[in-house]
Amino acid sequence: xxxxxxxxxxxxxxxxxxxxxxxxxxxxxxxxxxxxLRDAATPRTVIVAGTNGKGTVTxxxxxxxxxxxxxxxxxxxxxxxxxxxxxxxxxxxxTDADLCRAFDAVDRARGxxxxxxxxxxxxxxxxxxRDAGVDVQVLEVGLGGRLDAVNIWDADVAAITAVDLDHQxxxxxxxxxxxxxxxxxxxxxxxVILGELNPPASVLAHAREIxxxxxxxGPDFDLVCAGDRLSWQWRGGRVDWPxxxxxxxxxAVLANTATALAIVETLGYRAGLDTVMLQxxxxxxxxxxxxxxxxxxxxxxxxxxxxxxxxxxARWLRVHAVEGPxxxxxxxxxxxxxxxxxxxxxGVIDVxxxxxLDLPRAxxxxxxxxxxxxxxxxxxxxxxxxxxxxxxxxxxxGPTGRQVVFGSFHTVAAVLEQAPPELAIRAFQPGAHPGxxxxxx
Length: 441
Prior knowledge:
Blueprint: H1 6-16, H2 26-34, E1 44-49, H3 54-67, E2 72-75, E3 87-89, E4 92-93, H4 96-110, H5 117-132, E5 136-140, E6 157-160, H6 168-171, H7 175-182, E7 191-194, H8 201-210, E8 213-216, E9 221-226, E10 229-234, E11 237-242, H9 251-267, H10 275-282, E12 291-293, E13 298-301, H11 307-319, E14 326-330, H12 339-344, E15 351-354, H13 365-374, E16 380-382, H14 386-397, E17 402-406, H15 409-418, H16 421-427
Parallel strand pairs: 1-5, 1-6, 2-5, 6-7, 7-8, 13-17, 14-15, 14-17, 15-16
Antiparallel strand pairs: 2-3, 3-4, 9-10, 10-11, 12-13
């Protein structure tokens, strides 16, 4: 084995390929075939793309399938605190030892072909899923869809969540161009689940061109939450489940949960779900996605980093108001389009704290604060350090207020690393408040 520790493997993978992002499929497909990961023994495969929501959909779909009694592998990205979060078997993160075994197998199979960090992870996930004998592998697209590493597998069921502007340098400048890239995960005459009410016309056009079997949120399926009951509707049929009101499903999380259920339905496994299984599955969430953690003050962690995701965060904050002040701890990447984010939060945030991040891509905290003031936001502070920002935020929010952490995966991860340890522990506990997932960035 080339390395003995997970840290050594990951550090080496970051340097292996000449560029960090290489949107081609030939190299990874070649290595996958050498490993026998695309033969007749390949488990049933679900692939989920989208700008916002795909993390919630993959996590919920995997949890529902596991509750149904299946052995399930889940591959997501990026991670918050530990790489192991990316690869899960029946909801449990892969161990360092298992990841090292998988990386060694991939390394031996690749020969002289180099792989990117993400490609190594996708192959390691598929190798571990094959080794464990999973029934279904649920794979989250990292970027786009058509040329993403997971698209070397043919999805038995593909799903596309909400499409919006993000990563335009790679995917295109409008929803139609981005939708075309995400539609690339569809396969001819196979099912595709569309998890937004108004998908881009390019997505629908591609489905028609290849003869994909489309199921759309709204016309074909839906999930309605009323009081303590969930009403699931699928092509005219209806099932009602009694569930606890603490699930608090609304907005985008309700649409994403409906999309996860549609995946399970399309695979043919929904009929076996009972109320207990459903409650267990809906208690599972990916950490840091519109995640509410009780406290004095309360925390809300959200990786939202584009206009659509931040608008959903703003809607949620208005619906779920608290008595005290709402303090935003925010840091964003400099390459993001930010003006619409700040407009969406007008009147929602009482105190802003620009959080410093030690990352080349991050917008400096002082520049972010200046931008927020220019956008008409009031009471804007610059955190001289992350611990100082956290202390100031807690003081301003007070025991009846709320601290909202958002802007990127890096922002949420940095806060979890610096905040009191019990916050990270609770963030990763199953059954925390369910929420919506944004894409990475």
